[in-house]
Amino acid sequence: MDLFDKVSGFTRAKEAMELGIYPYFQALDKSEGSVATFKGKQVIMLGSNNYLGMTTNPDVKAAAQAAIDKYGTSCTGSRYLNGSLDLHNELDRRLAKFVGKEAALVFPTGYQTNVGAITAIASKGDYLILDKEAHACIVDGAFMSVAELKRFVHNDLSSLERVLKKLPEAAGKLVIVDGIYSMGGEIAPLPEIVEICKRYGARIMVDDAHSVGVLGEGRGTAAHFGITDDVDLISGTFSKSFASIGGFVAGDADVIHYIQHHARPLMFSASIPASNAAAVLATLDIIEKDTTPIKQLWENTEFMRAGLKKLGFNIGKSDTPIIPVIIGDDYTTGITWRSLIEHGVYTNPVVSPAVPPNQSMLRTSYISTHTKELLQEALDAFEIVGRTLDLIPAKQTA
User: Fold this and answer.
1) Nearest-angstrom CA–CA distance, 34 and 55
2) Does one domain contain both 320 and 226?
3) Is the residue at 394 inside a domain?
4) How far apart are CA 206 and CA 231, in angstroms?
5) Of 384, 267, 235, which Cα lies nearest the Cα of 392?
6) Which range of residues forms the domain containing residue 69?
7) Longest dimension (CA), the chain
8) In this structure, are 39 and 15 located in the same domain?
9) Considering the domain boundaries, does residue 396 fall inside one?
10) CATH number of the domain encompassing residue 313
11) How confident is residue 205, by pLDDT bands cut at 50, 70 and 90?
12) Staple 137 to which of 53, 111, 142, 323, CB 3.0 to 4.6 Å?
């Protein structure tokens, strides 16, 4: 059997392209945060993780531009060797203080952060216990490690306890959850998870990729619940609220020092450019002084949650700025995505196997810079498309 025989059997994407409902790798002509230009047409952006709208903030842009003038466009090496700048070290310190930990370490991407931290800290004979809806980078980190992987039912405390109860008492154990789950938008029941972890001698790591800038006055899930000291490791990314690229892990100083010297994705990848580090620092400056963008984000979120519910859409159990609109089958999801584009609204379609069968959805997410006028326009488009495609009940007439 030839290595490439599998290629000819992969027809799903081409079939969607022929039907005109292929939604992936689509290029935006322009993006201004709350709106974008797609194939020459202005659309309301409901598919971005730019929660605080900082990608277009003048101070953030100016900081990135000034860093290019001073440091150039790339560090051309890893932090382990020639790729550490004073900006990286400052960012390590600022992030640790921001999330309430002794130390933090900046990685090239959010994906590499979790892969690097997990593979560095988990050894043979250890156990990694993951929520079944943990992000792909957490799953990949577990697969790449030499530790044994266990899974528990999503946000199910009894399932977590059953898994931990079966593990050797003396073994090293690390439970890993998302603070906010990136598809369904639910918050992890962190206080209860921490309590169970303590009972069974397990450490706890929280991926705050979608929580930093959103929960706990921007400081993340543990801060939201007031249990920062009870969480061992906090990871995050810069590609959402921090308007940049890269990621970080924070925890006790000795643990971060160990990860720093054992995480291969950190040691063998070039560090983030100075412009990216400067953008994160500028964003930190803004949200540490003024939480208005966070408050506006939540106002916009509740406006859309109420509006979509009133129209009759199934939005699952979301309680965050990630609001899924659950459609069902893959084909109808593609049709709905295309129809919304035609009505000026950009969303992210998510189909199986990224979600369970018959749970395909449009993933929508909201930004502090969305105006109420834009959001109402988006709801109007959802109503038209929803009724046309029989996704929501027909409008009742008096």
Assistant:
1) 10
2) no
3) no
4) 7
5) 384
6) 57-289
7) 72
8) yes
9) no
10) 3.90.1150.10
11) very high
12) 111
Residues 6+ apart with CB under 8 A from 21: 331, 334, 335, 337, 338
User: Three-class SS of residue 233?
Assistant: strand
Strand partners, 325: 362
Question: Counting Cβ atoms within 10 Å, is residue 13 exposed (0-12), middle (13-18) or buried (19+)?
Answer: exposed
pLDDT at 355: 85
Judge whether residue 317 has pLDDT over 80.
Answer: yes
Backbone angles phi, psi at 325, to 5 degrees: -110, 100
Q: Is residue 180 part of a domain?
A: yes
pLDDT beyond 80 at 398: no
Closest by CA position to 39, among listed 26, 57, 52, 50: 26
Q: In angstroms, how far is CA 126 from the centroid of its own chain?
A: 26
pLDDT, tens only, 119-146: 999 999 999 999 999 999 999 999 999 9
What H or E segment, with its residue span, contains residue 210?
none
Rounded (5°) CA angle 214-220-222: 140
Task: Kindly state the tokens that stand for 250.
Answer: 């924070």
**pLDDT by residue (tens digit) across 373-386?**
999 999 999 999 99
How far is Cα of residue 18 from the mean position of the Cα atoms in its chain?
31
Q: Which of 254, 289, 324 is the last residue of a domain?
A: 289
Q: Which helix (H) or strand (E) holds 45?
A: strand 41-45
In the chain, the N- to C-terminal Cα span, in Å, equals: 66
With pLDDT > 90 as the criterion, what percentage of the chain qualifies?
Answer: 94
Compute how many other C-beta atoms are within 10 angstroms of the C-beta atom of residue 286.
18
The burial class, CB within 10 Å (0-12 / 13-18 / 19+), for 248 is buried
Listed residues 227, 260, 289: the one ending a domain: 289
